[in-house]
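Hallway conversation turned thread

IA: we were arguing at lunch whether anyone had actually written out ArnB: predicted UDP-4-amino-4-deoxy-L-arabinose--oxoglutarate aminotransferase end to end. Turns out nobody had. So, for the record, here is the sequence (403 residues) and right after it the structure tokens. Reply here if something looks off.
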Amino acid sequence: MNVPFAIPDLGNQEIQEVISVIKSGWLTTASRCKQFEENFAKYVGAKHALAVNSATAALHLGVESMGADPDTAVLVPTFTFTSTAEVVRYFDAEPIFVDCEPDTFCISSDLIEQAYDHYKANNLPAKKIKIMIPVHFGGHPCEMNDIVALAKKYGLKIIEDAAHAIPTRYAAAESLQESNQIEGKLIGNTGDITCFSFYANKTMTTGEGGMLCTDNDDIAKRVQVMRLHGISRDVWDRFETGASWEYDIVAPGYKYNMPDISAAIGIHQLKKVEQFRDQRQKIAQIYFDELKNIPGLILPRLKCPKEFHSWYLFMVLINPEASKNGLTRDDLITELSKRNIGTSVHYKPLHRMSYYKNRYKLKPEMFPNAEWVFQRCVSLPMFSAMKENQLEYVIESIKEILL
């Protein structure tokens, strides 16, 4: 049997919508994109949703809209994909790396404040911290109550990296749950900007694509212009029959627009996203039930209700000191690969990557939690189209290897 790490869950509705776009003769950004944006904004409760061709593009546009420049520093996790930090470097700004929590793998207000204080105390270098980018890792929500409070304390802007988090719901700290208004609310508009990914292996997909959400009219206007070459008008407005050709370039923008073929897929994926999440949670629950009490295997430890989690990832940890014959994370990956079971590692921390390690003189001991997690983590197959016999095969294989 073959079990991939992840595959998209596409149906006839997506196929027919794409065919309709092809038959229309207009393949790039137009009515489907506009419809997708309107549907997405309504779904997450944001005033504006702006479709782009990747979550990286959304993050880049978000950082640009906040005026990042070479005098800017931005707080980012070390335990994340490179795009979270690389968009900071596009402006010759400096990322300040933050350790993760050992259970949720997210950053917390305490860890952010530690990194902030260390940076200020050591003046490394003398740049103004203006922005923070928390990542809702694997679909688990960051504790945004405390993070928002910290941002207000220091006058920082928040760009939420929600590439893993559709649909994830905010979870307040236990002491704040009864009175807090964000408890159970979909991620989408608590920070200044929220960026989503629709890459092929995400919880919903457009093949390639992303979305930037904001309630700020000025940010939305800037992003709308900058996502397409800095042109003052949307391209589909200029090329409609009878429309004026006139336009202006108001800034040196980028080529980040989402084509209608992608949006056509997204329209129908969004309609199914809650169904996809429910199916992922069922798979997660079976993993929890069947893999508990296995020596050396640490299952996800949540600080939110299971129904708040998007379950983009089901990431487990392997503790060699407690596993059979000292089996390591890499040993488990190798053995599962022999059985044609796909896995992944999320992520090799950025402080281990040559560019960041060398430029900022980063050492593993500076990020003890991320190091501890990285050396043990492996993501198991998780996708909404996963068949029962595939799930059973993965579970039985893990038991065979670890028991």
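OS: looked through it. The chain has a mean pLDDT of 94.
IA: good, adding that to the notes. DSSP finds 13 helices and ten strands in the chain.
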